[in-house]
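Service request form, structural biology core

Requester: graduate student, group of Dr. S.
Request type: structure prediction, single chain
Budget code: on file
Notes: please return the result as structure tokens.

Sequence provided:
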Amino acid sequence: MTQAEMFGRARWIGADADHGAGIIIRKRFSYSGGAATLRLIGLGTFEAFINGKRISNDLFLPMNSEYEKTEFPWGEQLFGYRIYATEYDITGYLKAGSNTLALHVGNGWYTGMWFGIQKIFGSKKAIFSISVNENGKISEIVSDGSERWANSFVKESDLHRGESQDYTEWEDSCLDCDFDDSAWRTVALAKPVDSEYCFTDCPPDRVMEKVTPEAVGKGDGFNIYDAGKNTSGYPVIKLADGYTGEIKITFSESLADGDLDPEHIHEQHFNIKADGKARAAYLRFTWLGFRYFKVEGECEVESVCTIHTDISQTSSFHSDNEILNWIHDTFIHTQLTNMHRGIPSDCPHIERLGYTGDGQLLCRSVMDVLDAKAFYAKWIADISDCQDVLSGRVQYTAPYFYAGGGPGGWSCAIVTVPYEFYKAYGDDSFLRTLYPQMLRYFDFLDEHSEFGLVTSYKEGVWCLGDWVTPVQWTLPTPFVNTCLYVDTMQKLIEIARVIDKEEDIPAFEEKIALRKKAINTAYFNDFFADDTYCANTQGAGAFALNIGLGTENTKNKFIKYYEANPVYDTGIFGTELVTRKLFEYGRGDIALKLLTHNDTHGFARWRAEGYTTFREYWGNDYCRSYNHPMFGAVVACLYEFILGIRQEKDSAGYDRVIISPAVIDGLNSAKGHLTTPHGIISVAYSTDNGVRNYRVTIPDRVSARVCISGIPETTLVGGEYEFVV
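Core staff response, request fulfilled:
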């Protein structure tokens, strides 16, 4: 949609002079009856009120996107730009006669992001239209430049760091209908946003949980509180009647020596200047990532609000191994606290960026456990928008912000996320619309290769392989990126078959053969029948075997390597690959040891040390962030191999599945379910005196091939079944 199609004759408006971090824009209008709909956008972030009442519990709108064309110092020209409007039925908020719409507009992604370098689209502004249908007669009230504005109580606001609020010159009544705004300034018409105007059914951020924090320390003039777990959100601060002092709140993920750990504060703050009126104060334009916070000043901490995209958990997993249960449940919490404004972030506090590496790696696990279809539909559009038209390069973040990554594991999101979306939901629409962009991405990889190996991204920018291995990286970056090239092109072959582009497949197969030959030439060691890749270090065998390279000896040596050393030595891609390949080769016993070992580089150690979200780094050395979901890609293996629910290779949307739970010594019971487009598939098993009992539920319209050791293979249709082995 164009601006005119979305908003008719409405105009963009904003402050006509220097202004603070938050502004209030007021529009007075008359209403005599009928159904009324408000359509609006406020940039960077907004909240809306009718006659003093907030009209929604949606937070931090609009969704992040590549709003409009802006200048990049690196010369990119992006594929597309879009901006998301919000629409509300406001009939119940209106009264006959005079009414007032008040918009509180503050800083956000649009007005400037901090991460080593600023990216600013423009200044704060808004556009809106109110459509009233009174007995079939349509009338409109629109933003037209007659509105009034003034600064709000938000005096400083940084999307990454927090806010400062000053209520001493603030009048609560300014949101009300009858407030006299004649002394306020008239808005200025603002520069239109040249973009595609859209709606989205991606759920917004909301307060999802409220908890009462525990006081865990105090000192001279301060108290320290524990929210109980690492989270994303903010505290609600209750200001007492008559108090006119200042309150300073600082946040951290951990404690050190009885105080906040300074290494994990990341400049996060919330400062309040009270005006003597009793009120509840909370952040308006951002969230923070923390577990602990220090409060200096006189106030009551009413609650801590956990905030993230309003998405529900749809699947379940539980076993008699508490480490596996912890991995599953902690991943869900970590992931949810990294879902904000329509993007899956790397962390909710430091960068808050939609990294394509983390996002494409995790999407299968997320689609397994959460109701995430609308969320990923929105993010796939971001990935598409951020492809460079000139080079075919897919950016490391979507929406695009300067960051680091690799051309294989990050940029392949243009293929991997639509592919996993299709596999999970049976929806091939993105495969069809993005296919030309996928081809352009491989053109970029070909142009950044030497001797058949992917060797670069662009000059002066990181070109990573398997990010953040627990010890010094020894796995060559070109090896990782070229293996991921082949893996992604193998997905492209499947895509070509789905969308009737079989004529392209021979060229893809030829490219795959050339890349495999280059990998073998550079990294395969067949001297004295060693048959390993990169000496089997840091999951090299899994990377090669995953794309069909190696020999039976390669496979055996890969298995023996982790049988002798059941400890993760891998980064974000290798961790999932090693775990998956061991399960696929029938060595779930080794995979279980990797998942549950208590070494420094493992989930069990994180659990034992009290972490409530996944760390960014495996080891015990300095760890920048304690809330990074990227190692959670292994959660998909819990469903596919521990429960044994996985799709047939050429199935999508769970039309046809295999039920084949792994039999692993020491793992005696597990149960769970997976919600699919056709309904719930559930598996439960328990062991009693050496006898294993299975219960399986298959929804209608799903064909399930049951492959359970000890019974003949059989195919089931909808129903409930029991097996005893």
